[in-house]
Specification:
With 511 residues, this protein is of the alpha/beta class. It has 17 helices and 13 strands. Helix 4 (120-130) packs across helix 7, helix 4 crosses helix 10 and helix 12 (332-354) crosses helix 14 (407-421). The model is unreliable at 1-41 and 47-62 (pLDDT under 50).
Length: 511
């Protein structure tokens, strides 16, 4: 308990006595004679208590903290199952709460939608659920699930689709029947497709409202190219081009049981759950998917300076970096430690703490499962310190490629990685869903343990080696979203400036 909390607790516990000491009860004048001695006694006790607690005060930030070794991760018992239709399932019994949860990933995603119909994938994921089935409308399903306090949702993201469901254990048969009906008998009603289009058009109209959103979107386009499936976004014209037939075809292309991996965890008996799945989702017809490997990323390392001019803001959002890598790179543990040092031990302290320039500073060596991520450093600073902040960021990237880090920096970075590692396993849900993700991406089931072991072995020489090998400080792409008239120096002092137009193309008039 902190000193402040103890003092508040002490005062609360002695509130009645202090009220008397303060003279709240004055019927007898003789009580006044005792007020001062009691005040002195109370003050003495309080000071004594606080002085004792001072020995337990928080350590100074300058003192060295020593972290104990991590306890072994206790893995739950996980059963695996493959139904006759090819649906792969991970099952975990968890009797802490009377609920059951389901999550599944389907090998489909927006990276596979036609460039002229961007938005089709998201629309398919939405209307698969909202569009109803041959026997029930989407609104009927809403009402039934609400009466059960249950959920069933479907989605299609960038690199995967899927569905999620949550229910009380006594409703499992009803909810599994609803989920199966949605997957097997969707009708994709036209009115729900129209509603999904309205929602996407609304998102397009508001996409320039938030500076951080602009920065993320335009930086990804610099990294992957504006036409890449990993960076493109819907426009009015691409939404208008989508038809119901497109939605049905996209659904049929990927939503098959033999193209799906699912997890089930919660309060159930294993044998009973297996039988339930066979009776329900086991009827989902097997199909032939034509999903190819994910699109490749072609990146050209080059130095560029880019600006989105926003005269209506008084701070700049800065991003700089280049393409990253894959998570299964043997050097990924060393890159993770290196990024911790660069982002937190150096850039954060230099730009925010020492210079006081930034509201926020962060960085990441991005790595994805199946396509390269992004190495990026970012900061938010007042307009008048924009260029100076960029110069400091560039210098820190260069410095980590030139010299070894200190023993203290290495120790802190590794501790940060290892002490956040346990949060990947602090619930059975996280564990089983992580295993599903590894299976979906063809990674080994012990991949996270491999990363942990790799981090433990990282040395100062490793950090310098990977920094030199993977970071290219003279070939970063710089993006600033801000008011150029208020910058401390012209952005052109960093190089030729490419001005990015974020005007939203108007929708075509319908004839």
């Amino acid at each position: 308990m902190s000193t402040g909390r103890l003092e508040r607790s002490y005062l609360k516990e002695n509130e009645g006595q202090q009220m008397k000491q303060a003279g709240c009860y004055t019927e007898e004048k003789t009580m006044k004679k005792n007020i001062q001695p009691l005040k002195v006694l109370g003050a003495f006790v309080l000071i004594l208590a606080l002085s004792v607690l001072s020995g337990f005060a928080q350590k100074s930030p300058k003192e060295k903290f020593e972290f104990l070794p991590l306890n072994p991760i206790k893995m739950p018992k996980i059963e695996t199952l493959e139904l006759a239709n090819g649906l792969k399932v991970f099952l975990v019994e968890d009797h802490d709460f009377p609920t059951i949860d389901i999550r599944a990933v389907v090998r489909i995603g927006s990276v596979y939608e036609p460039a002229e119909k961007v938005g089709l994938a998201e629309m398919t994921g939405t209307v698969l659920r909202s569009g109803g089935t041959a026997s029930k409308t989407g609104d009927d399903i809403d009402r039934e699930l609400e009466s059960l306090a249950a959920t069933v949702e479907t989605y299609v993201g960038q690199s995967s689709g899927g569905f999620v469901s949550s229910m009380l254990k006594e409703d499992v048969d009803l909810v599994l029947a609803i989920l199966t009906d949605i997957l097997v008998n969707p009708v994709f009603s036209e009115d729900k497709i129209d509603l999904a289009k309205i929602q996407q058009r609304s998102g397009i109209s508001r996409r320039n409202d938030e500076v951080g959103g602009i920065a993320r979107r335009e930086f990804w386009k610099l990294m992957y190219s504006a036409t890449s499936p990993y960076a493109r976004h819907p426009e009015y014209v691409t939404i208008d081009a989508v038809t119901r037939d497109d939605v049905v075809r996209f659904y049929k292309r990927g939503f098959y049981p033999n193209n799906t991996i699912m997890t089930v965890w919660g309060d159930f008996a294993m044998d009973e759950m297996v039988q339930r799945l066979k009776i329900t989702l086991g009827t989902w017809p097997k199909g032939t998917s034509d999903i190819p490997s994910p699109p490749t990323v072609k990146y050209e390392y080059k130095y560029t300076v880019n600006l989105v001019n926003k005269p209506d803001v008084n701070q700049s959002h800065i991003s700089l970096g280049h393409i990253g890598g894959l998570m299964n790179n043997p050097d990924y543990p060393a890159l993770s430690v290196m990024n911790n040092i660069l982002s937190w031990e150096r850039m954060f302290k230099k730009i925010r703490t020492d210079e006081g320039l930034a509201y926020n500073v962060w960085g990441t060596y991005g790595a994805s499962y199946r396509h390269p991520g992004i190495f990026s450093c970012a900061a938010q600073t007042k307009s008048e310190s924009t260029v100076y902040a960029i110069e400091l960021m560039l210098e820190e990237v260069r410095r980590i490629t030139r010299e070894e880090v200190s023993d203290d920096e290495l120790a802190k970075a590794k501790d940060r990685d290892l002490n956040t590692y346990v949060f990947n396993f602090d619930s059975k849900a996280k564990i089983v869903n992580r295993l599903m993700t590894y299976a979906y991406n063809d990674y080994p089931m012990d991949f996270m343990e491999t990363i942990k072991t790799g981090v433990e072995k990282v040395t100062k020489a490793d950090v310098l080696r990977v920094a030199k090998k993977y970071l290219k400080p003279d070939k970063v792409q710089i993006l600033v979203v801000g008011n150029k008239e208020a910058f401390d120096k012209p952005l052109s002092s960093l190089g030729e400036v490419n001005v990015i137009d974020i005007t939203i193309p108007a929708a075509k008039d319908k004839q």
